[in-house]
Amino acid sequence: QVQLEEIGGGLVQAGGSLRLSCVASGRTFSDYAVAWFRQAPGKGREFVAAITRSGEMTMYVASVKGRYTISRENAKNAVYLQMNTLKPEDTAVYSCAASAHYYSRDARDYDYWGQGTQVTVSS
To answer: Which of 37, 31, 32 is nearest to 49 (CA)?
Structure first.
């Protein structure tokens, strides 16, 4: 098993930046693809970005492409989400998730989840 913890949420003005970290403990982190999801108030969970085990491949939801960057440092058991040019509609609880078998946009493919961190973007 792997345990995940998100670090780095907070309040930022529109146009600003934040970096989220997903830190893992337990099994070797490089065995897992990792994704970020978010859930805004009153809305369902939305895929944001994902990265393969090696970090060679990434994918994003269209609404964040060009503004967000997902990356990882397996030696530090960490995956990052750099969020730039933030908009009020990016406000949500952001969660990271890990899968030993899939690299996908589907939350059902991910077995391990962090508790989430709040990101609030003011206008």
So the answer is: 37
Q: How confident is the model at residue 85 (pLDDT cuts 50, 70, 90)?
A: very high
| Residue-wise pLDDT tens digits, 29-58 | 899 999 999 999 999 999 999 999 999 999
Mean pLDDT of all residues in the chain? 96
Q: Are 38 and 94 in contact (CB under 8 A)?
A: yes
| 89: three-class secondary structure by DSSP | helix
Tokens (6 digits) for 79: 């995956």
Task: Give residues with Cβ within 8 angstroms of 84, minimum separation 6.
Answer: 17, 67, 68, 69
DSSP character at residue 53: S
Going by C-alpha positions, the residue among 107, 101, 52, 60 that lies closest to residue 82 is: 60
Q: How far apart are CA 45 and CA 120, in angstroms?
A: 16
Residue 27 pLDDT: 76
